[in-house]
Write a structure and sequence with these properties.
The structure holds two protein chains of two kinds. Helix content of chain A is 39%, strand content 19%. Chain A is an alpha+beta fold. In chain A, helix 2 (164-180) runs antiparallel to helix 3, helix 13 crosses helix 15 (442-453) and helix 13 (414-427) crosses helix 16 (460-472). By secondary structure, chain B is of the alpha/beta class. An eleven-stranded mixed sheet of chain B has the order 1-3-2-4-6-5-10-11-9-7-8, with helices on both faces. In chain B, a hairpin with a 6-residue loop joins strand 10 (429-436) and strand 11. In chain B, helix 9 (294-312) crosses helix 12. The radius of gyration of chain B is 21 Å and the shape is globular. The chains are: A alpha+beta, B alpha/beta.
């Protein structure tokens, strides 16, 4: 065990799913667009153009504040971050420096069966830059401004993260929050959720010099890059060296971090208040009306599932599907015992997932799922029938309606069952003889016959006990 | 045909409405005049003849059909080259935008277009509005119609000169620190800078965003008001815009206070002292220290304005539009050479000042201090406004100076001394002709400043003073 302890702080950039861009009316979705199609005088910074802040982006930030257990700033404003680069059409990025829209907050993560809290320093709105394209074999570069002006939220954590595992859990939990709120589509492959990791190591109470690992876009790489960088820093220090404050990149193929820019080479961004957008005052009414649309948060689901003693990876299946999590939360509120809630989980991570793959628009509600489980529990239907009708329940039908319209109520009436069973025994003299001679394995055969004869509607437990009784007669 | 020289908007409207002159004739009259006299004056950068005549035809068609026309319909005007004009070259007086033709028009140009006004020319200015004489234009200097050896002032020098020389009935200018009022004063015309935010900046080349105002240059306060009421109002494309307050700002009884400035044209103060009015009562203020501090104001102004300039000019990088260095080997050379070659010296100077003021380690000492100074100036003016509706000053420290006579940039900055206050505080201010400098025979202006949002009161006072004096009619005696 190393005597060095890491300290990690994370900046996450999540692209918002607004209809239009951050400061103009251009379409915010350019996934399938040709280069430079979703552009206008504003987002390519023609002379004389002015930015107008997107109300939708502001509302998404207000939602996110709730997910991050953070306050929405009453007074919020934009600033300019100045730098020259061909992907930055104005020569500055509009961002938030002095009065970010989301103030202090925290995110709870579950590590080693313990909930720990990671502080959120703040989160702010800003705009993305365009994309540079370097055609191979040419001596020029091209710029695609479709992405220029896309709204981003940058979530800045406190340096509260103490291990690679915590870092990964934190990233996943924030990912769950932004996707479950629907403010980000979570498409990491396209860089819609990416992060910078600030890491230092120290063997004393004082913090070490940090390096920044820039532009990672997968949890796995975050984990690998952090492990590598922590070990590298420890090795440097053990070898008597010092850590340079610098920006480092991650080379996926070589699995190493490498120096990109030293502190001395860092840009002076000459921040100052954006004069084209007046400071905004966000009323309490606006905040509460926007936040009242939020149904559930991932942490609420996780805490429920944790109570059921489900493993983190089981929890993640549900949490990673915001709609499924929503069904779960609504079902669990209607179910009487932890056993039944656990059955709801089983349905959702089992049969439901299989149907999800095939169905485009599932309309399973928590109420219908709870009803189905209750019907099994009170003996109205068998679990086999339940499985048979589940697809219809997912398609939006009410379980009680299906049961009554199809006459699927379980056969539990003794005299009726006895008649059927007696007939089966009479029809199968040889196996009956074998049973009586001590071959108990044939009981399965008889139960199967009974279930078949009743189209699965017989109560299997009842069939089994009646069968034993009648065979012995 | 009626005499078309030096028409006011209402006179021209009357002639058009009564068909004493057609819009086409009126437009052609101005275009011919520009063609004839501009080689001497050099106020115009480009004449939009075809478009203007086509527009005039539409007005004439309406009149032929017996329809009535709006007040600005068929009225020829000129626009400073800061305004985006769709399909018409817009350079902001800079080589970096040489031959740049915008794909859209500024909101104010659109409003004037909708009102039927006819833009006949784009006029000269200091490059990116950096200057007070129009000598900083990357193309050529403009002359003062009163004396061709003198500057018209700036940066809206082309606007003021074009109205004074009757190249159009009014002009559209921009005012960041006095750029409408100072040239209006130097050219003997009326120039109005509205309350910050009352007129949209969308489509206007940005100089310093938190100071820039769009306003009219005209022959009278009455004309200025007609134009102003058309271009004012909230614009969804400019978040800093507000509606024009139309609350009663009448002339029941106006308390004004006049502050003279040392070395300022004495004739303005004597013209003011000769006023005798029951409606506007004028006190004489002690000295300009009541404004906070003139030195502080000018220093704060140049720090803040240069800071915003340095950021607003970053988009001129030779990548997407405008001039681009041809011989650059790589990206950084593209930036250096494009901006080195195509920006003029004053633009570079302000860029450097602004970049320095915003740099890490200097921000607190310059930008932040200047913001505090701006607040002090605002508060000082508020205090004067507690007891006064209107503040009067000479617009400038004297009449127009000779071309090439001021070479020290700081000395040039001093010409804004009395006008920057209105921009620092965001309040409305107008300059009206109010005296002739004895030593030079050049016109002098009186500046009328009002409370924030009291644009109409300022215009009403100016209009009233023009009904009891006749300084503003002097311009019509010019013989070019």
């Amino acid at each position: 065990m190393s005597k060095y302890k890491p300290t990690i702080g994370i900046e996450i950039h999540a692209q918002l799913t607004t209809k239009s861009k951050m400061f103009c009316g251009c379409d915010n979705n350019s996934r399938k667009a040709q280069p430079n199609v979703n552009i206008c005088p504003v987002c390519i910074a023609l002379p004389g153009t002015l930015p107008v802040a997107n109300k939708g982006a502001i509302e998404m930030a207000i939602k996110l504040a709730h997910g991050l257990n953070a306050k929405v700033a009453t007074n919020t404003s934009f600033d300019r971050k100045n730098y020259f680069y061909p992907d930055s059409p104005k020569g500055y990025q509009i961002t938030q420096m002095d009065q970010p829209i989301i103030q202090k907050g925290h995110v709870e993560i579950l590590v080693a069966d313990q909930f720990i809290s990671i502080g959120i320093h703040h989160a702010h709105l800003e705009e993305d830059a365009g994309k540079l394209i370097h055609p191979e074999g040419t001596d020029y570069s091209l710029v695609d401004f479709n992405r220029a002006g896309t709204p981003l939220v940058e979530i800045v954590s406190e340096p509260d993260i103490k291990s690679t595992e915590q870092a990964k859990r934190y990233l996943q939990e924030v990912y769950n929050i932004v996707t479950s709120l629907g403010v980000c589509d979570g498409d990491m492959q396209h860089g819609n959720f990416k992060f910078d990791l600030n890491v230092s190591v120290s063997n004393s109470a004082e913090l070490g010099t940090r390096t920044e690992l820039k532009n990672l876009n997968s949890f796995r790489n975050a984990e690998r890059a952090l492990s590598y960088e922590i070990n590298r820093q420890i090795e440097v220090l053990e070898g008597g060296g010092t850590i340079e404050q610098e920006t480092r990149g991650w080379n996926d193929t070589k699995a190493v971090t490498f120096s990109q820019r030293s502190k001395e080479q860092a840009n002076d961004y000459r921040y100052f208040p954006e004069p084209d957008i007046p400071p905004m005052v966000l009323s309490r009414e606006l905040v509460s009306s926007v936040q009242s649309e939020i149904k559930i948060l991932p942490i609420n689901v996780r805490k429920e599932l944790h109570l059921l003693k489900l493993s983190v990876s089981e929890q993640d299946i549900l949490i990673s599907q915001p709609k499924t999590a929503e069904i779960f939360m609504s079902a669990q509120a209607r179910l009487k015992s932890p056993e039944l809630v656990k059955q709801a989980v089983n349905w959702l991570v089992g049969d439901y997932q299989a149907i999800l793959v095939k169905t485009k628009k599932p309309v399973l509600t928590g109420g219908n799922l709870a009803e189905l489980i209750t019907l099994i529990e009170d003996g109205t239907i068998s679990s086999k029938i339940a499985k048979d009708i589940f697809a219809e329940v997912v398609a939006g039908l009410k379980p009680t309606d299906i049961v009554s319209s199809k006459g699927l109520k379980q056969l539990s009436d003794n005299s009726e069952l006895e008649l059927i069973i007696k007939k089966i025994i009479l029809d199968n003299p040889k196996p009956a003889e074998a049973y009586r001679a001590g071959n108990e394995r044939v009981l399965g055969f008889f139960v199967g016959q009974a279930m078949q004869a009743t189209n699965g509607q017989a109560n299997p437990t009842k069939v089994s006990s009646l069968m034993v009784k009648l065979l012995k007669e | 045909m009626a005499n078309l020289n030096y028409l006011s908007i209402t006179e021209a409207h009357q002639l058009l409405s009564t068909k004493q002159v057609s819009a086409k004739e009126l437009t052609q009259f101005y275009i011919d005049k520009i063609r004839r006299l501009n080689p001497k004056l050099r106020a115009v950068l480009v004449v939009c003849e075809a478009q203007a005549l086509e527009q005039a035809q539409q007005t004439d068609k309406k009149l032929a059909n017996g329809l009535s026309i709006g007040m600005l319909e068929g009225i020829p005007y000129t626009a400073k080259d800061m305004f985006m004009t769709r399909g018409v070259q817009t350079t902001a007086g800079s080589k970096i935008l040489e031959n740049y033709t915008p794909p859209y028009s500024a909101s104010v140009i659109q409003k004037l277009d909708t009102a039927g006004a006819i833009m006949i020319a784009k006029v000269n200015q200091d490059e990116f509005a950096h200057g007070g004489s129009t000598e900083n234009s990357s193309y050529h200097a403009t002359h003062n119609p009163w004396d061709l050896d003198r500057v018209p002032g700036g940066s809206s020098g082309g606007s003021a000169a074009s109205v004074a020389a009757d190249f159009g009935i009014f002009s559209l200018g921009t005012d960041t620190g006095g750029s409408i009022r100072q040239p209006a004063s130097y050219c003997g015309v009326t120039g109005f800078k509205p309350t910050y935010g009352v007129v949209s900046r969308y489509g206007v080349v940005a100089m310093a965003s938190s100071f820039d105002c769009v306003g009219p240059v005209a022959r009278s306060a009455q004309d200025a008001q007609i134009v102003f009421e058309i271009i004012a109002g909230k614009d969804p494309r400019d978040s800093t815009t507000i509606e024009l307050s139309t609350a009663s700002q009448g002339l029941s009884r106006i308390n004004a206070i006049f502050y003279d400035a040392e070395a300022a044209g004495r004739q303005v103060s004597s013209a003011v002292s000769e006023l005798n009015s029951d409606i506007v009562s004028i006190k004489i203020g002690n000295d300009l220290t009541a404004f906070g501090s003139t030195e502080l104001a000018l220093a704060a102004y140049y720090v803040l304005v240069s800071s915003e300039i340095s950021s607003n000019l970053e988009r001129y990088d030779g990548v997407r539009y405008g001039s681009s260095a041809k011989d650059a080997d790589d990206l950084i050379q593209t930036y250096f050479k494009t901006r080195g070659e195509f920006f003029g010296p004053e633009v570079k100077r302000r860029n450097i000042i602004g970049t320095y003021a915003l740099s890490a380690g200097y921000y607190d000492a310059y930008y932040k201090k200047a913001m505090q100074a701006r607040t002090i100036i605002k508060k000082s003016l508020d205090k004067i406004f507690e007891h006064n509706d209107i503040i009067l000053t000479p617009t400038t420290l004297g009449g127009a100076f000779k071309l090439g006579s001021i070479t020290d940039p700081v000395e040039m900055y001093q010409t804004d001394l009395l006008t920057v206050f209105a921009n620092l505080a965001g309040i409305p201010a107008i300059s009206i002709p109010f005296g002739i400098e004895l030593s030079s025979g050049m016109p002098l202006g009186l500046q009328i400043m009002g409370k924030q949002g009291n644009d109409l009161q300022v215009l009403n006072v100016a209009n009233y003073l023009q009904t009891i004096t006749n300084w503003h009619t002097k311009v019509s005696e010019l013989k070019l």
